[in-house]
Design goal:
The chain is about 60% helix and about 10% strand. It has about 80 residues and is mainly α. It has a two-stranded antiparallel sheet. Strand 1 (about 60) and strand 2 form a beta hairpin. The longest helix is centred in the middle third of the chain and has 29 residues, at about 30-55. The chain is elongated, with a radius of gyration of 19 Å. It starts with 7 loop residues before the first helix and ends in an 8-residue tail after the last strand.
Length: about 80
C-alpha cells in the first residue's frame, strides 16, 4: 500500500503538537531545533494548501461553462 499524504487537518494537528511541546520548554536543544524545522516545513505546506484552496474558491463558473476569476466588485458597477 502506497503512503498517503497527510491531510491538512493532520498536518495542522502535528504543527500544534510541536508548538505545544516547544512552549513547554523542557525539550533538549537538539530535539527542539529538529521540531522547529519540522514545524516550519509543516507551516509552509499548510500555507501552500490554503493558497491553492483560495485560488480554487476564487474561480466561478460562467453561464457558458467557462471558469473565470471571481471579481466581487463586478456586480457593483
Amino acid at each position: 500500500m502506497a503512503d498517503q499524504k497527510p491531510t491538512f487537518e493532520e498536518n495542522l494537528q502535528q504543527l500544534e503538537d510541536i508548538v505545544n511541546q516547544l512552549e513547554k520548554g523542557d525539550v533538549p536543544l537538539e530535539q527542539a531545533m529538529s521540531q522547529f524545522q519540522a514545524g516550519v516545513s509543516l507551516a509552509k505546506e499548510l500555507d501552500k494548501t490554503l493558497k491553492e484552496a483560495e485560488a480554487a474558491v476564487a474561480k466561478v463558473m460562467t453561464e457558458d461553462g467557462e471558469l473565470k476569476t471571481f471579481d466581487p466588485n463586478a456586480d457593483a458597477k
